[in-house]
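Quick entry between incubations.
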Amino acid sequence: MPAHPHLLGNYVPGSTPVHRAPLWSKAVLLLAIGILTILLQGPLERTVLLCVAVAVHLLARLPVKRLWMSVRLMWFFLIVIIAYQTWVNGWQDAWALVAGILACIFAANILTSTTEIQVLLDGVVKASRPFERFGAHPEKFALTIAIMLRSIPFIVGAFDDVRNAAMARGLERNPRARVLPVVITTVAYARQTGQALAARGLGDDQSPDAP
Amino acid sequence: MEGIAFHDASVTIEAPSGPGTTILQPTSLTLDGQRTAVIGANGSGKSTLLRLINGLLLPSSGSVTVQGLDTSRQGRDIRNRVGFVFTDPISQLVMPTPLEDVELSLRKRHSSPSERRAAAMEVLGTYGLSHLADNSVYELSGGERQLVALTSVLAVDPDILVLDEPNTLLDLRNTQLLQRTLAGLRQQLVMATHDLQLAATFERVLVVHDGAVILDGGPEEAIGFYRALCSDDDRWAEPAGNQS
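Done. Structure below.
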């Protein structure tokens, strides 16, 4: 698999106020946008939320193209949603729905783009410490987040690679040639990642003394 | 204390119906030398043999022990002592940058973020990789990636290092770089490789063929035997259509 450095979730170094802001404040922003998206369902309110997310993105001096890259995997579904909602409920509801989705994605992107991953992991560990008494494993939570952030761009890359391979063979219109290899690649990737983690003893910390 | 010991260890892949396939015949041997190479054709069982060492794979019968610990019962302890390097480093590197990946290895040892970062930088410096600390792992060359993967494993200072064809994806320059790094390590090394020149630098070489260790000896004897084996094996004979 070729390199796919344009990663959603990749930290973009910087010294803007957003970069310097403590992790909890960015987590609150994300949570607030998520909750407000549920509570405020009108197109105007959702547009304001979207504008807030874009404004913070620009304040963090993140490249504008990252906005597109964070949603490029789902553009097809967004178009389907817009088309269906416009047909059923009208364009205003369709826009409200899509604006809410975009606002949440952009807010999540701000968090991961302006926070070093180790800071993020330490934050997750700290936040999940209270749940240890219920059997939670904070380090495993953090590891799960790290794996998730690593996996999304890899899967996006798999789509790109498979599309190119299908085009090279003249199969770009064959859904099976476009989807099946991605599934197989993703499963193989998951297995490799699992083996690599096991080999490094990551995730072993609180597990029973078994392989 | 003994190093790595296989006690009649075999691996069989169960089939839904039928007897299953044996990918490693019952094997008994002890690896206690400093540097052991494992050579053999693709699919011969090299990786299976290596994966038994740190419990990535458990024997279907028999047992494997490392420093007296059984891989079937004490896998966690063994993985703290045995580092494993895969062929493709990108599948091994979990974090986006070398610094963060080494930090991930050190999370168990250093809870303080600042201490962890300093320790990670020190480890990268030890292996001459400080200048790559903040690069994306996706933008490194194959050799650099493999060295970063190796460094992430060495960060926790294992006693034994198992490497599964670490130079298969590397060009000559990067192979030599890797070779120089490996030469300076204190760890006991067990490495599968197709690179016979590299294998020749090891003290001991195992030849694996059809799921069995068929020769265990010095590099000259083992490599000569393997070359002869490849020459004699019908599977490598020239296809009839190509014969002049």
